[in-house]
Amino acid sequence: MAVFEYAPAPESRAIVAIASHYGLFIGGEFVEAEDGHPFKTVNPATEEVLAEVTAAGPRDVDRAVRAARAAQEKVWGPMPAQDRAKYLYRIARIVQERSRELAVLESLDNGKPIRESRDVDLPLAAAWFFHYAGWADKLPYAGLGPDPRPLGVAGQVIPWNFPLLMLAWKIAPALACGNTVVLKPAETTPLTALAFADICRQAGLPAGVVNIVTGAGETGAALVSHDGVDKVAFTGSTEVGRQIAQTLAGTRKRLTLELGGKAANIVFDDAPLDQAVEGIVNGIFFNQGHVCCAGSRLLVQESIHDEVLDRLKQRMTTLRVGDPLDKNTDIGAINSPAQLAKIAELSEAGQAEGAERWSAPCELPQQGYWFPPTLFTGVTQAHRIAREEIFGPVLSVLTFRTPAEAVDKANNTPYGLSAGVWTEKGSRILWTAERLRAGVVWANTFNKFDPASPFGGYKESGYGREGGRQGLEAYLAH
Amino acid sequence: MPTDSRSERVEVRKTYKLYIGGAFPRSESGRTYEVSDSGGQFLANAALASRKDARDAVVAAHKAWPGWTARTAYNRGQVLYRVAEMLEGRSGQFAAEVMAAEGASRARADAQVSAAIDRWVWYAGWTDKLAQVHGSSNPVAGPYFDFSVPEPTGVVAAIAPRASSLLGLVSMVAPILAAGNTCVVLAAAGRPLPAITLAEVLATSDLPGGVVNLLTGQASEVAPWLASHLDVQGLDLTGVDDPTLAVALERAAAGNLKRVLLPEPEADWAADPGLTRMRAFLETKTVWHPVGI
Q1: For burial by CB atoms within 10 Å, which of A112, A353, B50, B269 has the most?
Q2: Which residues in chain A are contacts of B140 at CB distance < 8 A?
Q3: Residues of B in contact with A447 (CB under 8 A)
Q4: Domain B32-290 - what CATH class?
Q5: What percent of chain B has pLDDT over 70?
Q6: Are residues A149 and A215 in the same domain?
Q7: Is residue A327 domain-shared with residue A283, that is, in the same domain?
Q8: Band of residue B265 on the pLDDT scale cut at 50, 70, 90
Q9: Annotated catalytic residue A258
């Protein structure tokens, strides 16, 4: 089959103005750090320095928490709920209006293909604000009691894989419920959160309702352990989530955690194979596999293993890896050298433990951080690549014979975030979905998200839900 | 037949044991401790549960979970309702034990027993309503059918409150079961007898063995093993009254990210319990499927 050649179709970065230096967004304005220090954020596709940003120190975090507290008590908490709703609607609209700019900025800072930041991250981020805006004045109808109250100040720490979208997942429900926030974006992807500060300015959001403190792990630790924080929301690794849960023991702070995953994507022998192959590719290669709910363990029924693998490899050879700003790009850059090293290390472990490695033939750029779409066959459940979250474009293929074996293998992990099921048989979908210990089950689809749809894990993938009515519980006293 | 010349009959006392996997074993450690009434009079020697007993109880709860959660909600409701029927039949015995344990008047003990039975009936009725109240059909912006259902968390370890030896216990155990979980309950150390009698009620109702496992003993000794056990997914610390122990248990629970209900020694057990206790040990599962022809 001939593969079409594509002419380059680069998205212009002229729409984005990046300042050379950013302070911290505290109390409605950008301020310089008191005890922080500057660090640089780079474009992972080119290693170009994009801007100098500021790592907030403990005193800076304290200022931000106090600003949030004052805003919660004096302005945001007492404000009529319908007015809170109107601010959130304004934010949703501004995100839509500036979505092209934000998509380019996201791809520059994160390395994800513009096709995804433009078609997934930005529309969903706007939708999240729009959805929760409408909840702000309907909270007594959410089934959490007649008079649900805000918790106070929320300290929120988000990851680098969907920077602006994760910000929206955190800030929209928190604000709708009457809380104010101090949010720390990931160290490697601070720029869209800093751009969001400007959106707050344009929306006329009262000072201190949203505060953005940039920095790495120490800043996050200072935030979650701050006495003035009533609620902690964290999305990231299970290891850090565990530490946060330990740190918070005895404080009575409310905590929600959205952590790692090792999702099984189960393909039964009667699955629609063309769709299944697309779903497998989307499941593991979407966003370079930097997805906590990625379908990183393919469980394929033994009788169709060879056919699925042939089709999958053929499809993988057509994936275009390269410039994130090229509209034809399927797979962008790995977000950081540290992540690239982790992916490489686990892939080497896969080979060393006896699995067979295959990567799609593709030319990787000389500059930047890249990893080719890769799959392993002959993987057993004991292999590290079947047990540990790789968080990269690496798929482990295992087989099963019976539906019961598929479910056993799918559940054989301490994680429980998501899972996929591919079969034409409705009763088998429901049977399987019922038995999977995972918070989200995608049947004949994968990696779908919506603000009306609760998302979150079982077991060590964390607790609490984000999205929909269920997502309000994390931000209300009841 | 010789005539009994004694004026007062010597009562046949009951041996109070653990309840694990549907059976009533003594502690494997062979240890007991003395339980007294509120006036300091000897009541019984209760089993002093050990680490091994705690682990056996978790094994039993873990084994019972798949069967219990696989039952229809209607069936679980009937099984729990049957427990209330059995409770009612033993209400006199419970009242006597509550009086002895708490030093309560007959009227207060009767009121607590009635409230406990009514609470159990209330929770029994929830089994087949939870999915409608907690679940949802989600209007996503695309051609997908998307729904969310609540599912039980798994095995819950619970430390029972001392203040309310029957109503508090029932208010803790019933929501765990109604939500479809199985549990290991550590009775309040000084007042374990109503709890053991509750176990006897459970054993003679239709509740499958292992769904509830009851330990008697010291929280400081047993609870840490429950809090750190990897086959326990939820931890109810309601009855923990030692703040230092509570923090240690909460920290241990973070090991496998257990869902934790924080200590509530001052709980008002007579108040409307709301849905918080059931929600604490429920997960939400969301399922997506494309719509098309």
Answers
A1: A112
A2: 448, 450, 452-453
A3: none
A4: alpha beta
A5: 98
A6: yes
A7: yes
A8: confident
A9: yes
By DSSP bridging, strand A231-235 and strand A153-157 are parallel
What domain range is A106 assigned to? 24-259+458-477
Catalytic residue selected from A11, A116, A187, A292: A292
φ, ψ for residue A432 (rounded to 5)? -70, -45
Same domain, A251 and A300: no
Min Cα distance B227 → chain A (Å) is 13
Residue in chain B nearest A275 by alpha carbon: B290
A208: left (phi over 0), alpha (psi -120 to 50) or beta: left
How many helices (H) and strands (E) chain A has is answered by: 15, 19
Statement to judge: residues A244 and A358 lie in one domain = no
- Average pLDDT, integer, range A310-338: 97
Residue B148 with chain A: CB contacts under 8 Å:
453-454, 468, 470
Q: What pairing do the DSSP bridges indicate for beta strands A418-422 and A264-267?
A: parallel
Residue of B nearest to A258 (CA): B257
Tokens (6 digits) for A309: 């693998």
Q: Is A258 on the interface with B (CB under 8 A)?
A: no
| pLDDT tens figures, A266-276 | 999 999 999 99
What is the ipTM metric for this complex?
0.97
Picking from B142, B233, B250, the nearest residue to A250 by CB comes out as: B250
Tokens in use for A307?
């056919």
Residue A263: band (very low, low, confident or very high) from pLDDT cuts 50, 70, 90:
very high
Cβ–Cβ gap B148/A246 under 8 Å:
no
Q: Is A251 helix (H, G, I), strand (E, B) or coil?
A: coil
Q: What is the pTM of this model?
A: 0.96
pLDDT value of position B266: 86
Q: Which residue has the tokens 């098309």?
A: B292
What CA–CA distance (Å, rounded) separates B70 from A79?
Answer: 47
- B279 and A473: CB-CB below 8 Å? yes
pLDDT, position B2: 58
A171: distance to nearest CA of chain B, Å? 20
Mean pLDDT of A96-105: 98
Q: Does A464 touch chain B (CB under 8 A)?
A: no
User: Residues B135, B147: contact at Cβ < 8 Å?
Assistant: yes
Candidate from A250, A443, A458 with C-beta closest to B247: A250
Question: Are A86 and A234 contained in the same domain?
Answer: yes
A250 contacts on B by Cβ (under 8 Å): 243, 246-247, 250-251
The helix (run of H) or strand (run of E) holding residue A153 is strand A153-157
Chain B's closest residue to A449, CA to CA, is B140
